Amino acid sequence: MSAEHNLHLLPQTRQLRALHTIVRDRTAGLDSFVLHSRRIIRLLLEAGLDQLPFAEHQVTTPVGATYQGLRHTADLCAVAVVRAGESMEAELRELLPGIRIGKILIQRDKQSKLPHLYYSNLPPGIADGHVLLMEPMLATGGSANAAIDVLLKAGVREERIVLIDFIAAPEGIRAVTEAHPRVKIVVSSIEERLNENAFMVPGIGDFGDRYFGTTHPGA
């Protein structure tokens, strides 16, 4: 399957655009930002789960009829890229209460400007199944590629990784698909571009700071 077919943009409905209008507003309060972000995150996670393998499964309905259904067949865990990726954990727990969630901490080196791995703690047996990699902001793609490399080194197969992004820049999408063409990407909005400071335009600001109510050290 081509990298283009592995990019899954949520249907751009009027409802989704209305939710984005609220969370992109710089005057949005913390309660409003979290509430409406979680609604978008739920849509993203559901779309991410749709990328997993299914098998046919029949059930008998209350009227005695047979329903030709489906069920998940994948052994699944999730990995959050600290800190913004942790915003997706609560919503994921509501969908899959027993899911195991790992952590990866990657920060950009101030001198080299390259992503540096500081910490990782992955669920045991991660190499045997599929992984939802939660990274809300896909800007340059550097951190996402570094996180994917951590998973690959742990034995996860590239085609079994589903990258969940709140928003993504074309530059970041290109960087990930060129480096890891078999990784599936699920995103709610593709931005116009990166500006000269590598911020997404029109963007949403620092997602982690806005979601958790903190201030970026450099702000």
Automatic annotation (TrEMBL):
Keywords from the UniProt entry: Allosteric enzyme, Glycosyltransferase, GTP-binding, Nucleotide-binding, Transferase
- The EC category is transferase
Cofactor(s) required for function per UniProt = Mg(2+)
Q: Which GO terms describe its molecular function?
A: GTP binding; uracil phosphoribosyltransferase activity
In this protein, which residues make up the domain named Phosphoribosyltransferase?
11-214
Question: Which InterPro entries does the UniProt record give?
Answer: PRTase-like, PRTase_dom
Keyword Transferase applies: yes
What EC numbers are recorded for this enzyme? 2.4.2.9
A Pfam match is UPRTase
Q: Which stretch is the leader sequence?
A: none
User: In which pathway does this enzyme or protein participate?
Assistant: Pyrimidine metabolism; UMP biosynthesis via salvage pathway; UMP from uracil: step 1/1
Q: What family is this protein classified in? A: Belongs to the UPRTase family.
The entry's protein name is uracil phosphoribosyltransferase
